[in-house]
Backbone:
């Protein structure tokens, strides 16, 4: 009897301690259950939910208007790209900005640059960035936050516009037919996992060498050995990038514009006078931080000798003003957003009115944009190309036309439309040619940027 009493007393003590420490005790569970009462309508909804998706049941039943894709100002386009099962949206979007210029200038038809060509060098350069950074941090413990971040993120096929700036400036461009897409460019998962494993192994080898006081030249030789393995794997999976090629550029009517032998850099310089690193400015909308300040994100570049992503934080009203000026002048823009929020993938409409989960389930209190960023509830996840804007009689934007890189079967023949309200809530980054940036904003880029760590909630690779 005493043993039973002791056991009951001990159980009560343990439960009391659990309650004090924040555990779910029988008393807490009882309180939770008391707060849950399912009405008849709740039970009916529950029965339907067991056999249907939340998206289908919370979808606004109002049909999309016939004029949803009527846009007053849009830049002509030719062809839709498809990144397939890869995280290369940043590369497709950046190259879509450049190919738009080519199409308009030379009256081209369905013309594309090779994403595969630049992706090869992107993966090689990111591998070098990781290995050299491991050497630079070689004397820090493995538990250091930056060292941990490096080994957690040795390689990615995601990225941002900085990658386009760095890679095109360094390696040039080739037409899609010169180095076509490969299976492993379109389906990067397995190749990426193999490369990551080799890089992590190489990173540990380099750290051991640093610990043994290896000479700088020996460290560089071993790094080159690892990069040789990376190059070989990339060549086998993606193909070897051309150093020189013959190409005949024809307009949409088949008339020859020029036929010549090029290197990738001479091809780029022949058809573009743009300086990608000087003629484009990067903007961000993050209301959790002060506006009109510049920020830079550590380790956000694609090449070791490149530049970290530096941007000016501005309200979306400034973004819209620059985007409208650009589109009116037949110039498309690179931008990124949280594409999976309120996205009707069947119609291609991005609208705050698409889904009402609160009406269906209740309990959705909602957060503002700043709170969503701070709590990792929302972030820049996908890059696309802004190609049109629908303006009212006063010149105010109502909705925006987007060229995506998910193929023609996605959305509205490969295009999406976002409402102006959706722009405010889920647009994060915008890249603008300097000539469309007001002088007062250009001047603000002269201020010293605050550097943020690579793991800051603001930063994320678009894929």
Residues:
């Amino acid at each position: 009897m005493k043993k039973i009493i002791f056991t009951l007393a001990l159980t009560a003590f343990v439960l009391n301690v659990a309650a004090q420490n924040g555990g779910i005790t029988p008393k807490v569970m009882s309180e939770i259950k008391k707060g849950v009462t399912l009405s008849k309508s709740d039970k009916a909804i529950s029965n339907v939910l067991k056999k249907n998706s939340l998206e289908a049941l919370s979808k606004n039943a109002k049909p999309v208007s016939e004029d949803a894709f009527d846009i007053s100002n849009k830049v002509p386009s030719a062809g839709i790209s498809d990144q397939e099962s890869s995280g290369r949206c940043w590369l497709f979007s950046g190259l879509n900005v450049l190919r738009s210029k080519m199409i308009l200038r030379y009256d081209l038809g369905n013309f594309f640059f090779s994403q595969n060509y630049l992706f090869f060098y992107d993966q090689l350069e990111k591998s070098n960035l990781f290995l050299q950074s491991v050497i630079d941090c070689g004397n820090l413990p493995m538990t250091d936050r930056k060292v941990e971040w490096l080994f957690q993120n040795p390689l990615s096929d995601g990225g941002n516009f900085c990658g386009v700036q760095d890679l095109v400036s360094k390696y040039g461009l080739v037409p899609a037919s010169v180095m076509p897409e490969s299976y492993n460019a379109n389906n990067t998962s397995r190749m990426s996992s193999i490369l990551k494993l080799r890089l992590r192994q190489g990173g540990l080898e380099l750290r051991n060498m640093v610990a043994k006081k290896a000479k700088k030249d020996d460290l560089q030789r071993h790094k080159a050995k690892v990069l040789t393995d990376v190059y070989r794997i990339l060549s086998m999976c993606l193909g070897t990038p051309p150093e020189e090629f013959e190409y005949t550029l024809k307009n949409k009517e088949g008339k020859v514009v020029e036929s010549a032998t090029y290197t990738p850099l001479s091809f780029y310089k022949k058809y573009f006078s743009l300086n990608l690193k000087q003629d484009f400015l990067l903007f961000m909308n993050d209301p959790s931080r002060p506006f009109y300040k510049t920020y830079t994100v550590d380790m956000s570049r694609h090449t070791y000798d490149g530049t970290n992503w530096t941007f000016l934080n501005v309200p979306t009203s400034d973004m819209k003003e620059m985007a409208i000026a650009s589109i009116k002048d037949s110039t498309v823009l690179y931008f990124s957003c949280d594409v999976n929020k309120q996205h009707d993938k069947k119609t291609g409409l991005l609208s705050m009115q698409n889904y009402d989960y609160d009406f269906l389930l209740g309990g959705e209190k909602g957060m503002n944009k700043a709170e969503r960023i701070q709590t990792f509830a929302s972030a820049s996840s996908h890059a696309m190309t802004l190609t049109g804007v629908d303006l009212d009689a006063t010149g105010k934007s109502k909705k925006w036309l987007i060229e995506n890189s998910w193929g023609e079967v996605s959305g509205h023949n490969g295009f999406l439309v976002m409402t102006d309200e959706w722009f405010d809530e889920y647009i994060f980054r915008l890249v603008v040619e300097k000539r469309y940036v007001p002088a007062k904003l250009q001047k603000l880029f002269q201020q010293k940027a605050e550097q943020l760590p690579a793991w800051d909630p603001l930063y994320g690779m678009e894929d």
Observations:
- Residues 73-452 form a domain with the Cathepsin B; Chain A fold (CATH 3.90.70.10).
- Confidence is low (pLDDT under 50) at residues 1-10.
- The chain has one domain: 73-452.
